[in-house]
Design goal:
By secondary structure, the chain is mostly helical. It has one domain. Helix content is 76%, strand content 0%. Helix 2 packs across helix 7 and helix 12 packs across helix 13. The chain starts with a helix and ends in an 8-residue tail after the last helix. GO terms for molecular function: ABC-type transporter activity.
Length: 267
């Protein structure tokens, strides 16, 4: 552990440089630059609020749908962007890996940090919508970083698994995009959880079970609790969020460590 921390400390400047490079490349020659990190969730919120809010006949006043949606979508978008970018990070970092020694986990970790930077900029859009919709400020908003940290750890664990497997199975890139779409609809982002709770029959029971084992449901719900509802999730939800993050981080580290020695033969 001590040796691993020393190696990480040694290469932390490289991690910073890679993250800075990705931020600069993403917004290079863009007139609005980083403002797109704010405009993108705002535009998405406006479109989906108009479409799904009316199609699902959601009570916009009671639920405060625009705030409900943008908070959930911001968290899910972070996870989606982090894992999708991390999948090919080792492959695209092959030129560096072949030339010099670099801890290979630096590449998926950097993509997660890059997505975290984008998330922090997206929080400005969240604040704008909350102000516009007159959400009452609460001290619990200061805890916004807690669910983000839980989700970040979870995303790193999943990213380590995906980045290692994608080196050997390139089709995983296409499968993951499909899985993310399904995952989004199985997370209460564009619909209230009450729709699932009120569902009857076998299909309703299956949906409730799937959502209950969905890690992103707990991260999103935690995020909404502290930002929107002014409540602090209890010990059980904190343990669930921590458990998902810790378990996937450990599994991801073990999978990545086991497979990384043969990366050079496949990139």
């Amino acid at each position: 552990m001590k040796g691993s921390l020393q190696v990480f400390k040694k290469y932390s400047p490289l991690l910073y440089d890679l993250t800075s490079r990705d931020v600069k490349i993403k917004y290079r020659r863009s007139v609005l630059g980083l403002a797109w990190s704010i405009l993108n969730p705002l535009l998405m919120m406006i479109v989906l609020t108009t479409v799904f809010g009316h199609l699902l006949k959601v009570d916009m006043t009671t639920l405060n749908f625009p705030v409900y949606f943008i908070i959930g979508n911001t968290m899910f978008s972070f996870f989606s962007e982090a894992t999708t970018g991390a999948m090919t990070s080792v492959i695209y970092g092959g030129s560096l890996i072949k030339k010099v020694y670099i801890p290979k986990y630096i590449f998926p970790l950097e993509k997660c940090l890059f997505s975290l930077v984008n998330l922090l900029f997206s929080m400005i859009a969240v604040v704008i919508v909350m102000l516009f919709r007159q959400v009452t400020p609460s001290w619990t908003m200061l805890l916004f970083f807690v669910p983000i940290l839980y989700c970040f750890v979870f995303a790193v664990g999943v990213s380590l698994i995906l980045s290692a497997l994608t080196v050997y199975f390139r089709d995983l890139m296409h499968l993951w995009s499909i899985l993310l779409t399904v995952w989004m609809y199985l997370t209460p982002i564009i619909y209230p959880m009450s729709l699932i709770e009120d569902a009857t029959g076998l299909s309703g029971q299956i949906l409730r079970t799937v959502i209950q084992i969905n890690p992103l449901y707990y991260f999103v719900d935690y995020f909404r609790s502290v930002l929107m509802f002014g409540t602090v999730p209890g010990l059980q939800q904190n343990l669930i969020c921590f458990g998902f993050g810790a378990v996937f981080l450990i599994i991801g580290a073990l999978v990545f460590k086991k497979l990384q020695n043969r990366f050079i033969l496949h990139i």
